[in-house]
Amino acid sequence: MSLGGYLIYIALLLIIPMWAQSKVKSTYKKYSKKATSSSMTGAEVARKILNDNGLFDVQVGETKGMLSDHYDPRKKIVRLSSGNYHGQSMASSAIAAHEVGHAIQDAEEYAFLRFRSSLVPVASLGNKMSFFLIFAGIIFQMGNLLLLGIIFMSAAVLFQLVTLPVEFDASNRAMGQLVATGVINNNEERETKKVLNAAALTYVAAALVAVAELVRFILMYTASSD
Question: Where does the chain cross the membrane (predicted)?
């Protein structure tokens, strides 16, 4: 790869995640100002959907930070950032329902969620070790080290790819639950879905970047082996 091509490649790796994050923030900002017809807070939305699905043991809590919302499967708690916990907007409802979608996946032992959970230790090790091994292999021209680094990176990339169906499924569940429970009406579906789609972009962008990096190092390894 020429220097110009390499610089373009690096720029794309930086631009894609930045664009995805910008899209999420702008969409969230827009729809955090639009209240739903039900005027329920994110916390109320989460509690209602959980109760309607019989998940009375799952708690709803508030957490600090912007868009720090997540579901903790170990403690069985949906944590919503302050803005979404108290907010009555389409964005708050969408994000709360999405996180509850993960709680429903957990209760139903959704296959991709279980698979992703099993990958966590390997993916964590892969993230920590892969670049060290790859760059050591490149610097010292040791093909075996480079290959080992690629194997470690593959585990981390697999985790990113498995995350995609988990997140998309949670969003699909969220839309269904929001309509079924009457949190939003039919006229609000399109706008609420925009929030969920924007959030999904961050996972797609992360997966694209991870795959591109893995392919680049694989090509580098095959070239050095010729």
Answer: 6-24, 200-223
Active-site position among 44, 62, 99, 213: 99
- CB distance 116 to 86 below 8 Å: no
Q: Nearest Cα to 58, choosing from 45, 46, 40?
A: 46
> What strands lie across the sheet with 70-72, from one edge to the other?
59-63, 77-81, 70-72
Residue in this structure with the two tokens 């090509």, named with its chain if needed: 219
- Residue 34 burial (CB count, 10 A): 14
Q: What percentage of the chain exceeds 70 in pLDDT?
A: 96
**pTM for the full model?**
0.90
Is 167 part of the annotated catalytic residue set?
no
Contact 94, 27 (CB under 8 A): no
Nearest to 20 by CA among 207, 217, 165, 156: 207
- Contact assessment for residue 132 and residue 149, using Cβ atoms and an 8 Å cutoff: yes
Distances (CA, A) of 28 to 90, 173, 226: 9, 19, 49
Longest dimension (CA), the chain: 64
pLDDT tens-place string over residues 75-128: 999 999 999 999 999 999 999 999 999 999 999 999 999 999 999 999 999 999
pLDDT band, very low/low/confident/very high, at 2 (cuts 50, 70, 90): low
Q: Please, what is the angle between helix 143-180 and helix 42-52, to 10°?
A: 90
Cα-only R_g, the chain: 20
**pLDDT class of 22 with cuts at 50, 70, 90:** very high
Query: For the chain, what are the domain ranges?
Result: 3-225
Cβ atoms of 132 and 156 within 8 Å: the answer is: no
